Amino acid sequence: MLEIRNLHARIAEDGTEIIRGLNLTVKAGEVAAIMGPNGSGKSTLSYILAGREDYEVTEGDILLDGESILDLDPAERAAKGVFLAFQYPVEIPGVATMQFLKVAMNEQRKARGEDELTTPDFMKRVKAAANELKINPDMLRRPLNVGFSGGEKKRAEILQMSLLEPSLCVLDETDSGLDIDALKIVADGVNALRSPDRAIVVITHYQRLLDYIVPDSVHVLYKGQIIKSGSKELARELEANGYAEIIGQAA
Ligand SMILES: Nc1ncnc2c1ncn2[C@@H]1O[C@H](COP(=O)(O)OP(=O)(O)O)[C@@H](O)[C@H]1O
Ligand SMILES: [Mg+2]
After folding, report:
1. Which residue's CA is minimally distant from atom 17 of ligand 1?
2. What is the pLDDT of residues 181-204, one digit of tens each?
3. Has residue 66 been placed in a domain?
């Protein structure tokens, strides 16, 4: 599903190399967790997966289902089923959440060569998904993310993710200081989205999130490389011993 091969990437503006030979494979049906100390390149990796122009890939490749996505712009990647949930969701004043979802879903369907949803069909899907995520219908009438609480933003994000049916989900939750309720919303949402034809990458600082989302694999990112991979036990080890030991071994 997702295969990152010897990826090197730098900041376009000043040429600083951030990702330095990163290898990672996430199979369909898997949830992979990426952990690592602050500044190791976790968020940068998610931006590069999304195709943000502030970064340049200088070497290596990113393959989705065996095909390179490096030449695709962010919209084309989204059309291929890449969905990124960011630490700081954008606010869209003047556009009701419901309206936003309808446009986003129909764009996605168009890209897949499917018909637009009829309004009743769209309403039915949104209501079912909102109900499952315990989203108050009033929230859907408000502009997307404007004045939403942290927990509401997380719910809106997970709602988008479930309605867009992505094949690769990347969630960057690092440093976002999610409270326990928001953590559970994200975890329940991710668990509900687990599917044999979908790969999920959860970037997190907290081992605690991984008590709720039990990952199939855990990878430690340090200075732009994956320095250790393992099972969910690796996250517990990190919780108990910190990163120092693993960093020492890799050095
Ligand atoms: N656009 C940028 N300009 C300058 N430095 C950047 C930029 N993006 C990332 N960095 C630097 O790259 C490193 C990795 O950052 P980041 O990916 O945010 O780490 P993490 O998410 O693991 O905490 C940090 O040292 C950060 O300061
Ligand atoms: Mg980060």
Report:
1. 41
2. 878 888 988 999 999 999 999 998
3. yes
